[in-house]
């Protein structure tokens, strides 16, 4: 697999998210995807499969009262099947706000996202926001 293929998959995934095309983004996940959500909050831990990730993202949208947003803030960095993407994510709910930088690390195999590892600049603040 060329390095361009993982980059193209990642770009298509983030473009779909930016356009609010959740089904398009979800279609890029491998059926057995493993999403590693960091921290010590209600969403932390491993979420397995497209349905598991869908429940996670739906829960985050519900908890943030539909305000959760993710924006790519820099150039994707490629290392074989790994694609690291600098992001900024934010949301608000019941007077609480979250706005911070992070990195989404995608493992792309066979044209699909097989693993997702997320990193945030302030894990304690993210935990406090999500509860």
Number of strands: 7
Return the CATH class.
Answer: Alpha Beta
Query: How much strand?
Result: 35-45%
Q: State the shape.
A: globular
Instruction: Give the ordered list of helices and strands.
Output: HHEEHEEEEEH
Organism: Microlunatus parietis
InterPro entries: NTF2-like_dom_sf, SnoaL-like
Domain SnoaL-like: 12-115
Protein name: SnoaL-like domain-containing protein
Give an overview in words.
This is SnoaL-like domain-containing protein. It comes from Microlunatus parietis. With 131 residues, the protein is of the alpha+beta class. It has a single domain, classed as Nuclear Transport Factor 2, Chain: A (Roll), CATH 3.10.450. It is built from 4 helices and 7 strands, in the order ααββαβββββα. The N and C termini lie far apart (40 Å).
Note the main attributes of this structure.
131 residues, alpha+beta, Nuclear Transport Factor 2, Chain: A, 7-stranded mixed sheet, 4 helices, 7 strands, 33% helix, globular, SnoaL-like, SnoaL-like domain-containing protein, NTF2-like_dom_sf
């Amino acid at each position: 697999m060329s390095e361009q293929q993982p980059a193209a998959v990642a770009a298509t995934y983030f473009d779909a998210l930016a356009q609010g095309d959740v089904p398009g983004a979800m279609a890029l996940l491998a059926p057995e995807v493993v999403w590693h959500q960091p921290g010590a909050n209600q969403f932390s831990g491993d979420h397995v499969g497209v349905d598991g990730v869908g429940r996670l993202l739906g829960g985050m949208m519900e908890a943030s009262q539909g305000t959760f947003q993710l924006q790519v803030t820099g150039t994707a960095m490629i290392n074989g099947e790994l694609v690291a993407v600098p992001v900024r994510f934010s949301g608000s709910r019941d007077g609480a706000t979250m706005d911070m930088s992070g990195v989404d690390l995608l493992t792309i195999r066979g044209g699909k996202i097989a693993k997702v590892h997320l990193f945030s600049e302030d894990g304690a603040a993210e935990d406090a926001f999500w509860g």
